[in-house]
Every structure is written in structure tokens, then in C-alpha cells.
Amino acid sequence: MKKKIGKQTYKFSLPININDTCSRVGPIEGEGPLKNYFHYIEQDDTLNEKTFEKAEHQFSIKTVMNLLEKSSTKKEDVDIYVAGDLLNQIITANATARDLSIPFWGIYNACASFCEGLQIASSMIDGGFFEKAVVSSTSHFSTAERQYRYPLELGTQAPPVSQRTVTGTGAVLLSKNGNGPYITHMTIGKVMDYNQDDPNNMGSAMAISACDTIYTHFRDTGFNIDDYDMILTGDLGKVGYNITIDYLKSQKNLDISGIYNDCGLLIYDLKSQDVMSGGSGAGCSASVFCSYIYSLMKEKKLNKILFCPTGALLSPVSTGQKDSIPCIAHAVTIENNPTL
What is the pLDDT of residues 143-201, one digit of tens each? Predict the structure, then answer.
């Protein structure tokens, strides 16, 4: 079977089963609209650790261990752990892999890392290399804020176009067998750069990547908008969300407004919570998918979605040197009733 469709999209030979998910978020996220869907809400985002970085590690390892427990899966039965985060040298994923003692691939595509992990693990299962894989992604407001922007103690006022980094983790268990939902297609994104260099306005920087990947997916597959119940980006917030709708409609004649949403808008209440333009972070799309979206798919309220997290590939060094922000977006099709 030929798996490549068009330029950047691939169809898996057999649908990749999502066996189970687990999510954990911090107190601000736990006060938002999705509070009844998260598996665990921590009221103390330090988890009694001495540093926020150690707390982020605890968010990650606890969530993966809870996933294994609720899915009745032994660590020894997992072939690969694929994970990423936002911190330098992905220290959260590395520490979690150390504790799990499961073969490990550490990845980095910023806030798109979760979808990158889904694509990598699904490809390897489809190729017959693995039977079971765990994918997770984590972020923490306090660790990301002081790494990428300003010291927390400075109390810098965030501009309205900025987004709040989600404190949270999402983890999934993938395998060859199960009752779905299933990952059936993936569209691998390209790095895009439109010379936006403001680290406080990542939604506008990332939007063009989302547009390119979404448009490419439909061009490659021949699918129509009506084939999907939802198109879901990961981390654009209000600014990037509006740009994506406007650009695709005006420049690509693709109107997604009727079925489009963004995890950064779903996780917070922009009217009552002080989160500026919405949420972002490697844990944003991961925690929203592993709770709210997965629940809707299991209940058959959603049957086919295009899941497209985005990532701003900046660093403290590139920001300090006033470089523009290269961005990427990856997408996977997830459906309950795939056509083989």
C-alpha cells in the first residue's frame, strides 16, 4: 500500500488505536471551562517541590504513571516513550524517561511537540516496529515564563496579544489494536517564518504555519471541510485563531470557520480569567486533547477531527538577538470509523 498522499501527507496502513489518555493541569486551568474533563487538577502548581522545574517534572511523571495505571498497562509492555517539553534540553521529558526506564525518544517542536510525538509513534507502530507507545507533552507557566520572557519576580505586565503558558500534561497510549478512536492520517508541517520577532505575540507568528499545514492536508487528501466535525489547532489563542480563519478564507478560498476551534481558546475563559489572548504551551494541546476532545470522541459527539498543534521555534538566545520566529504545525486525522 502506498502511504504517501501528495506532498506532505501519509495514510497509515492500519488505523493506529488510541487506547487511553490521561491529563493533569494546574489551578488556573482547573478553574476554566474544561474543569469537569481533566483527570487531575492540582491546586498547588509547585506540588511541594523546591523549584518550578521539579514541579513540572512531577506533572509529567505522575500523568504518565496514572495513564499506565488506568489502562492496566505495565511499563515493561511499552516499547517506546516519546515526549517533549519547552525547557532547555527538554529536561522534563528526560527526567520522566529516567524515572520510567522505558526506551525513549526525546523530541522538540515547541508547542507542536505532542502532535510530532503522535506522528512518530504512529509511524513506527504502522511500520511494525512497535506494539505499544506512550506519548506525552508538558509545560508549566512559571518555568516557561522565566525562560523565554522575564523573571517572575519582575511582575512584568503582559500585553493583550500574549498568551498564558498552560501548566499541564497530556499523555496517550497508542497501539495496533483497540476500539478507537484511531489516528489514520498525518500531515507533516514545514518551518515557516514571516519575520515576526515579538515573543509576546506568538499567535500571529504561528498562524501562518497552521494555515499552510491545514491547506496542504486538504490539498493532499482531497478531503472536504464537510468530511470533518472539527478542525482544532493547538496554541494560537484569539489573535492567531482570527488570522487563520481570515487567511485561509481570503487567500486559499477555504472557509473553516464553521468547524474550527483552538485549544488555547477552549482551556480558559477569556472573559473571566486574566489570560490575555488565551493559552499556549506544549501542555496546552496535549491536556485539552487528552481530556475534553478524547471524551467527545469516545462519546461519538465528534467522529472525525483534524488535530493541528502549532509551535514557535524560538529560544532565549534567538529572542535576545532579535531573530524572527520560525514556526511549525503538524496535523493528524483522528476518527472513530475509518475507511480502510
Answer: 988 877 666 665 666 776 778 999 999 999 999 999 999 999 999 999 999 898 888 88
Distances (CA, A) of 43 to 30, 31, 32, 167: 8, 10, 13, 11
Buried b / exposed e over 82-92, threshold 16 CB at 10 Å, is: bbbbbbeebbb
Q: Where are the alpha helices (DSSP H) in 127-281?
A: 141-148, 202-221, 237-252, 263-266
Residue 155 — left, alpha, or beta (φ > 0 → left; ψ -120 to 50 → alpha)? left
Cβ contact 328:126 at 8 Å: no
Helix (H, G, I), strand (E, B) or coil at 176: coil
Domain enclosing residue 196, as ranges: 1-340
Whole-structure pTM value: 0.96
CATH number of the domain enclosing 307? 3.40.47.40
Q: Determine the Cα–Cα distance for residues 209 and 32; give it in Å rounded to an integer.
A: 27
The count of domains in the chain is 1
Q: What is the pLDDT of residues 277-313, one digit of tens each?
A: 999 999 999 999 999 999 999 999 999 999 999 999 9
